[in-house]
Automatic annotation (TrEMBL), chains A, B:
Keywords: Hydrolase, Metal-binding, Protease. It comes from the Bacteria. This is Acetylornithine deacetylase-like protein. One of its GO terms (molecular function) is peptidase activity. Residues 193-353 form the Peptidase M20 dimerisation domain.
Amino acid sequence: MKEVIDFIDSNYERYLDELKEFLRIPSISTLPEHSRDMQTAAEFVAAKLKDAGMNKVEIFQTEGHPLVYAEWLGAPGKPTVLIYGHYDVQPVDPIELWESPPFEPTIKGDNIYARGATDDKGQMFVHIKSVEAYFKTYGSLPLNVKFIIEGEEEIGSSNLTSFLKNNVELLKADAVLISDTSLYDVGVPTITYGLRGLAYMEVEVVGPNRDLHSGTYGGAVPNPINILAEMIAKLKDKDAKITITGFYKDVLKLTKEERQNFKALKFSEKEFARSIGIKKSVGEKGYSVLERIWARPTLDCNGIVGGFTGQGAKTVIPSKASAKISMRLVPNQDPKKIEKLFTKYIKQIAPDYVNVKVTSIHGGYPVLAPLDHKATKAAARAMSKAFGKKTIFMREGGSIPIVVDFANRLKACPVLMGLGLDSENLHSPNEHFNLNHFKLGIKSSAYFLDEFSRV
Amino acid sequence: MKEVIDFIDSNYERYLDELKEFLRIPSISTLPEHSRDMQTAAEFVAAKLKDAGMNKVEIFQTEGHPLVYAEWLGAPGKPTVLIYGHYDVQPVDPIELWESPPFEPTIKGDNIYARGATDDKGQMFVHIKSVEAYFKTYGSLPLNVKFIIEGEEEIGSSNLTSFLKNNVELLKADAVLISDTSLYDVGVPTITYGLRGLAYMEVEVVGPNRDLHSGTYGGAVPNPINILAEMIAKLKDKDAKITITGFYKDVLKLTKEERQNFKALKFSEKEFARSIGIKKSVGEKGYSVLERIWARPTLDCNGIVGGFTGQGAKTVIPSKASAKISMRLVPNQDPKKIEKLFTKYIKQIAPDYVNVKVTSIHGGYPVLAPLDHKATKAAARAMSKAFGKKTIFMREGGSIPIVVDFANRLKACPVLMGLGLDSENLHSPNEHFNLNHFKLGIKSSAYFLDEFSRV
């Protein structure tokens, strides 16, 4: 391995030049005027994969932007890893807030500034370079490697989703390696092993068949806002436990090890509260902030509207009111099942003198990569070697739908080897990527190929 | 009295012609292009008061439309009645829905159709004609009479309100006679003796200092929508009693007589529910629908808003949410006091980890004319004589701010001798007024002058 690591060190300046070249391509997936740039970016990725040594490289056209596929299957009997990333980037508005042009990569201090630097060109490029270092050093890889790089992550991954559905055999792997999340902190090697799922619902309450004058009718008719409020209040108890019957039934409990891992992290609840302007953090009784955010299911109203919402007064009893209510789910909750439980409970607590409509707007499965999976352990060892520190394990409160699809369709263990930082302005002006993490990422990736080949 | 009633019968055709002339004046107070019509209507009223025999008639110019004042104080030692009405009318849109031109009075069956027919020209004109009948028959009135007729009732009465404040002595009276409400039903003589008041509040809950991603933060931060909903749910108990401490303290209980009066009215709770498309009426335990609407205080959310309210899904925990919450008040509740109790209670039930702002938007006092007041009794006897039926007593759920001002500033008993019907399309196309009620109204008014002079 020493030779590979040395190769990375001595070729680093060239990697940086190539990354800059990649970042100069304005591959904004959502803007039609950039469709040619999308093709250019896909061709750049394909060329770099070919240069690296991947022996089968193919660009698949889709109804949207192209997918880049590559494989090297020269290690029969050894595990197969699928490496995922995306070459598309977010738009750059508001352009006037950029301190350097978004598609003219600029190095300041430890960081390289450009749209896509951390999300996801810089993070994804790491793996192409680790594969190259291996090939250039030993002429082969220690295990089988596939790449699938898409150009539509920022607009919903719909073409990759259907490609995945139709090409399970092509993409089949034991693990899916993804660098599109964050490190817990600067220089802290981190594996994200859990993502929450989602069940997003809408509840509409209809009372009278028209808006009524609150003087003439107030006191004798069901008010849909009051009733909706009462129903929302019944969704949690005083300990912030969700009261929907059966809601927690499938929740995988945090293990002792996980709770200890979270507890060991440098985290200040005070600083967390201060950063978002709240007096104190609140939530489900019996759990820490990190546990609540990463590993416990939640319920939040995301929106509510009914009646008169302008300036001043209008004495109306509205005909209807509605709320968006979503639940973040954790392994092994099933969004389809939760939708049903939610709907049933809402119907049960709704008074019989109003009409209540419950609609499912959107759902997604949670993901959990077992901490004791060989791929997870190999990744942790790899990052520890590269960073020279013990790898920490965290979860994330949000969802990454494509990760769920990989895990479910391919039965592959997701390995989220995030190399970004939450502070790197992804989706905002002055996006940047820490170049120390870029170099340590290439080494982490190389170590992972070695570690995972040995299991 | 027989002579007065005979006079009314034999002059009825002329009264009708005069009413038509009045209705032809397009005195729409809210439209600036009708300001000359407002002057014309005021002059018409003043002329008719002079013709009737009132010996001091004056038009007071205001910052808006003129006020018409008249007095005859030739009965020293006798009570004084102030008669109030308004000569302004609502706009006529949508004009295409009128079956006859709004300012060309048209008689069809028992009704006269025109804008202002029932609200309030027809109802108000009744009293000018009863005074005329008296003067023409006996050469004098049996008690002292004042008139104050405004041209801004449909736009908030602000100039009358300040005139009243500055002219208490001029307007001083023992009773204020007003015909600007409704009969309970066709041909049913009705006195409205109670109006509800209002305290209209706004509550804003602020949690985090910005909108947050519900994946990243959900579970550990206070959600202002959920908290607002929980607070609203705490404003009433399961019997729909309002839980604000001290809220019912000053509520004047319905007397046995009142409850019996209401019970005796022809009223179908089923039909009431059907008419507004609800399965059943609901409200405070232990009270009938009419009691709840007319004589019990209520609390209703008039509007609520927070977070994402568009189509589809946005996984946001909003920074804030707010609701408009109003309470209808009954005698002897004081809106200023209720505002304070509401604010105190809200602050008390608000969790200490959010910021809650309570604002008073608008308030108004309730009114109750004592059933045993001489003016109330005289009015009931008068209507019974004219209609040939027992007068019923009802209340109304809404507010009429100017009535409160009269009652409070002049310490005069309000007598709401409504002659309209809720079905007469006031404020809508094809407004009309039942001419039987017009004639019976003139007689009721004349009987009232007689009855009230004897007390």
